[in-house]
Structure formats: C-alpha cells, structure tokens
Amino acid sequence: PPNIFDILQSNALAQDNSANVATHCDVYLSYCPSDSRTDVKSGLATAHTDTGDYDSMTDPMQLKKDLESKGYKVLSNIRNPHNQELDLNKIVSCIRNCKLFVSCISDEYANNENCRMEIQYAKKTVRKNLIPIIVGNGGWNWQASVVGMLIAGERYIDFVKQENYQEKLDDLKAQVDNLMVEAAGKPTAGPVLVKPIDNKQDIFISYCWSNSFLSKQNNEVKVLSGSQFNDPRRIKALLAEKYKVWLDIEQLTSGQVTGMFEQITDGLLNSKCVCAFVSSEYAKSDNCKMEFQFATKSLKKPFIPICVGEDMGWESSVIGALVTGAGHNVINLLDVGSEAELLKKIEEIVDKVSDHVEEVEERSAAEDADTDAPPAYNEVIKSRAPQVGDHVISHHQKHAYFTSTILSLMQLI
Q1: What angle do CA 310, 241, 287 make, to 5 degrees?
Q2: Whole-angstrom Cα distance, residue 99 to residue 215?
Q3: Other CB atoms closer than 10 Å to residue 347's CB: what's the count?
Q4: Measuring CA to CA, how many Å separate 33 from each of 59, 327, 402?
Q5: Are 89 and 42 spatial neighbours (Cβ–Cβ below 8 Å)?
Q6: What is the pLDDT of residue 48?
Q7: Are 282 and 211 spatial neighbours (Cβ–Cβ below 8 Å)?
Q8: Going by C-beta distance under 8 Å and a sequence separation of 6 or more, which residues neighbour residue 51?
C-alpha cells in the first residue's frame, strides 16, 4: 500500500508556505505509544505487556524530556486536541521540518503501521539524518522487518536495559549534538562523546566486542572471553598515546547518509596499518571476517595479528589461514596477567606499528616525489571483482540482509 505520509506531503508543503512554525523542531521523536509508560497510564495506548514491566522499560516520553532539558525543541506524536487522535498532517509537517529524526525501535514499533510510515517517510522521502535507538521489552523480531532493512548498517543505541540509562543518554545527547552542529554547518564546539570522523589514521583497530573487558563492564555484551589485560579497547588507549587510532565506538556515527559499513570502509582506506585482535570469537563473527578479509586481501593493508580471548581455536579458521599465509608472527596476549606484562607487550606492538607506519609514509613520500608514478592505491581502487572464498553481504531475504561465502564463479556469455 502507498505511504499515506507521502500523499499528505502536499499539505505539509502548504503549511511550510504559510510560515507555520509550530511544526518546526530540532528533533522529531518517533515511537510506538504502547512502548510508553506515560501514554499507557494516560489511556492514549494499550499495554502490550504487564503494566508492572513498564517500570523496567525506557519510556520514550522520558527521553523526550531529557532532550528538552538540554535545550532542544522535541516534537512527537502530535494529536488533535479535540479527540486525541494522531494528527497525521501535522506529523508529516513536523518530520519534514525537523533537523533530526530519532526512532525508538521495538517489535511493537515495527508492527505499528504509523511508525513504519514515519520512519520510511523520514529516511526515504525527505532523507533526514536518523538516530535509531532500541526500546521495548527486549524483542528483536524488528530486525527481520522493513524497519530493520531501513536502518541496516546503522549504529543504534540500546536503551532496553535501564541499568545503563544515563550512559546511553549521554551517548544519545552527544550524537544529537554532533548532528545539530552538522545541520547548522558549524564546527563542533567543545568535546563530545562521539567525535566527527578523522579521515587519516595510523592504526585501525579490528576486534570482536566479546573480547573487550570494557565492553562487558558497559553491558554491551553478555559474555566476556578475555581479561582486562588483553582488552583491545584498553590497548587502543595505550597506543593512542603515540598514534592516531581508529576505534569503532569513537568513530561510527549514526544518522549519516552513509551507514556503518561504509564508515568502516573509509576508516580502513585511510589507515596506514591494521591491528587485528584475533580470537575464536573474532573468527566466528561474519562482520569481523569480512572486515579482516577486506583489509588484508582487497586493500592489501599491512596488519599485526594480536591473539586475545581465551584460546587458539581461531588458528583452524579462515582467519588463521590468512594469517599463516601472510607469514606473520602472532603477538600472543593470552597469558598476560599483570600490568607490567601488558606494557611489555605494548612495546612489542608499537615496534611492529612503527615499522609499518614508516614504510607506508616512505612509500607515500616517494610516490609524491615521482610525478610519473601511478596514484596511491587508495585513490585508484575502491572495489574489485569478487573472488572465490570472499565473504559478502547478499541481497536481503524477507527484508533481512545475510552473509554468505562465494564458492564458485560462473562466466556469463
């Protein structure tokens, strides 16, 4: 069926032309009323779970208040004052005139026709910057819906668990700050948690979140494989004392026209070398395998394999085959159990990084000096034809993208 928001767009344009500023806002907060404790208690929505469960769920209306307390004008679910029904004409105008669209995603959101139309209109028709956040009671069936397809590749903020509400709220506010500055066309004023991407880096950190002690502390993963002495994020902080380092949680930004995978690609293209924190968990992750293969086989980036986690099971995987084939010695952090041992290993990593960075800089300087030399690799090749063994993202099935491995290629005549 057609999106009624597209049909109502002419009315929104008429409101724009009539200088109606009531529908102009900084943020439009899109949410399903049945996910809101406030709406359920006021009778505006029907509960989808036991009313007691709402005490442990993030209320989108509380998020609205918290963003407003920072000085932003936030609108959402505009209702007709006479009958309390949603005023679709004003909602269309709000989305059209907002600077940023924040969607509170849940299974209920994905099953709600108005919510689906809102996010589709914002993303596809008026192409608004979008920040997806996850609410509700923990269901993830939305990933296999049109909503999941629309935000595929975006970094989302998980508000399902209340324990980390303030930390997640800080993350949301930081992203809103960045995108508001971008909308105004001004440089960022003051430090924020999510910084604009710095294109040129010395090191790209490739790792699995399950191997990060800090990730477990932040409740971003359920199970940790590793320790505080072989945490890739902690090692990144130590390396950053000397080098410019790309780390996903600091560089990936939601709401950009480019999605997560494109931002990772840019990060790899503009890094001089890759520190790959390999583990059994890393070898089982489709995203990690694609990232590693793209860096080493497609971009031919110099890399340093660093073993983390709790075992050497990764050696019998495709990651192990690629590391062995490249002839690299692995820096093993499995037995590191003290600060002193970690710092000694950091020195070993720094030595390897220094060699790679110096080599890349020398080659780049030589190419700059030789006017007849071909352009640098990153300026010439953005992609290549697929090869047998490549891990790829395949066309979506039932609105869900999936990964696969190329087993053979057929030449079409």
Answers
A1: 45
A2: 31
A3: 8
A4: 10, 57, 31
A5: no
A6: 83
A7: yes
A8: 40
Predicted local distance difference test score (pLDDT) of residue 392: 65
Among 207, 251, 264, which Cα is nearest to 231's? 207
**pLDDT, position 13:** 52
What's the one-letter identity of residue 157?
I
User: Mean pLDDT in runs of 10 for the chain (413 residues)?
Assistant: 57 50 83 92 85 83 94 88 76 90 94 90 88 90 80 81 87 90 56 46 95 90 93 96 93 60 82 96 90 87 96 94 91 95 96 94 78 47 61 51 65 45
3 CB-near residues (< 8 Å, 6+ apart)? 117, 120, 121, 125
Q: Which residue has the tokens 């303030």?
A: 166
Distances (CA, A) of 112 to 115, 119, 279: 5, 11, 41
